[in-house]
Design brief:
With 98 residues, this protein is mostly helical. It is built from 4 helices and no strands.
């Protein structure tokens, strides 16, 4: 193959690569927003429990509060893993490594 042939092959691949990058960016944006929302809910639970710690302790609600807080952190953990896989998959495929 000559240089001109390789250039034409790459030009043919560019639209596909651009479309895939747009789709990936939208997914990452959506997942990040979902993780931020879960972190916000977890923070609200922690703030509420800490502001009323005496009441929580007197009724023995520490385990329940911890379970609620932990439940809110499950979704962001899944999102972090997915973002990690997407990022490193993009780097392997020749994407930009930050």
């Amino acid at each position: 193959m000559t240089h001109a042939d390789m250039t034409l092959v790459m030009l043919g691949c560019l639209p596909f690569m651009a479309i895939m990058r747009v789709i990936l960016s939208r997914n990452v944006r959506r997942m990040t927003a979902r993780a931020e929302e879960s972190y916000s809910r977890a923070s609200g639970i922690a703030q509420q429990v800490l502001s009323q710690i005496r009441t929580v302790v007197s009724y023995g609600g520490e385990e329940k509060a911890l379970a609620q807080y932990s439940q809110q952190l499950v979704d962001p953990a899944k999102v972090r893993y997915t973002l990690f896989v997407h990022h490193h998959g993009t780097c392997i495929m020749g994407g930009r490594k930050e």
